[in-house]
Specification:
By secondary structure, this protein is mainly alpha-helical. It contains 15 helices and 3 strands. Strand 1 (about 85) and strand 2 form a beta hairpin. One of its GO terms (biological process) is acetyl-CoA biosynthetic process.
């Protein structure tokens, strides 16, 4: 049809193709016969050499169907042993949300399940929460909070502010908890006398991590340290490492009044006591926990609360871009 009229009909097209010496079957059903006849003619004339048939490729089986039939196993990319979200409700190391929410479980219990893969006793999970509460913030002047504040004032989003602060946590800021646990464990297990331990560290040109404070001293003890010590003495079945740290402190205080057991040292030692007290961990597991850096993880988690607080505080106060004052910089050659 269309504007071409007769010239565009199927018959006209077929006639034109025939005139041009094309092979035109009478109908669609005759296609197969026409192809076969043309092939035979070309073979007879010698213009086409028959080739052996190529076996048709087999159609691959559908992966999901094969999986269901148990014929194939898909390789896994990730191994996870702490949680499962495939059921009706997510589980944290086998404990479902209903149990967590309707029982007397708390943040400490969630950490206990997801980090330690144990249901730690109440005194232990309460201690974990105390550490988070005590370490949540330490004012706007420490490097992490300063970074978060400067980033917030630069107009950045909350995640950027938090990350900016978190990136300062390491061996000098926060990492002392891990180091204190490692060193006190080493010294206490080797039964080193406190003076021997301190002097050995001194010979190596290292300070004892967890000892010393810029402001606190013998007569002005850190209240946080006292709170933790009192709690542990009351509820922990064993405080072997804390007792050792206190003996080390007695020795270091003879050197200088500010060489007190600080909050990092106290948490480090008490965490060792917690791991030993519960009798749920082997010596190898305890060594692993201290080496991997679980305690730094605790500090990261705790300090995130304060860093978010500082970032939001600056936005609420609508503080402008921070610039360091010139008179706070010593320009020198």
């Amino acid at each position: 049809g269309g504007r071409g009229g007769q010239a565009e009909s199927a018959q006209a097209k077929n006639s034109a193709l025939k005139e041009a010496e094309a092979v035109v079957p009478e109908s669609f059903e005759d296609f197969e016969g026409a192809i076969k006849a043309t092939y035979n003619k070309m073979v007879k004339e010698g213009s086409l050499k028959p080739q052996p048939d190529i076996p048709a490729p087999s159609v691959p089986q559908d992966l999901i169907a094969a999986q269901k039939a148990g014929k194939v196993r898909v390789p896994t990319n990730i191994v996870s042993t702490i949680c499962d979200d495939r059921g009706e409700e997510p589980t944290y190391h086998g404990v479902d949300m209903t149990t967590l929410m309707t029982g007397d479980k708390n943040v400490g219990d969630v950490i206990s399940l997801l980090w330690f893969k144990r249901q730690l006793p109440k005194y232990a999970t309460r201690f974990i929460e105390m550490c988070i509460m005590l370490c949540a913030d330490h004012g706007p002047c420490v490097s992490g909070a300063h970074n978060a504040i400067v980033t917030s004032r630069a107009g950045k989003d909350l995640v950027s502010c938090l990350v900016s602060g978190l990136l300062t946590i390491g061996p000098r800021f926060g990492g002392a908890i891990d180091d204190a646990a490692r060193q006190f464990q080493r010294a206490c297990d080797a039964k080193l006398d406190p003076d021997e331990f301190v002097e050995d560290m001194k010979k190596q040109g290292a300070r004892v991590p967890g000892i010393g404070h810029r402001i606190k001293s013998k007569d002005n003890k850190d209240k946080r340290v006292e709170l933790l010590q009192n709690y542990a003495n009351k509820f922990f079945p064993s405080t072997k490492y804390l007792q050792y740290a206190v003996r080390v402190e007695q020795y270091t205080l003879t050197k200088a009044a500010n060489l007190v057991l600080n909050v990092d040292g106290c948490i480090g030692c008490l965490f060792l006591d917690l791991l030993h007290s519960t009798k749920m961990f082997s010596a190898a597991e305890i060594k692993d926990i201290i080496q991997i850096g679980y305690l730094n993880g605790l500090f990261v988690l705790a300090r995130s609360i304060g860093l978010i607080g500082h970032a939001l505080d600056q936005k609420r106060l609508q503080q402008g871009l921070y610039r360091h004052p010139w008179d706070m910089v010593l320009y020198t050659k």
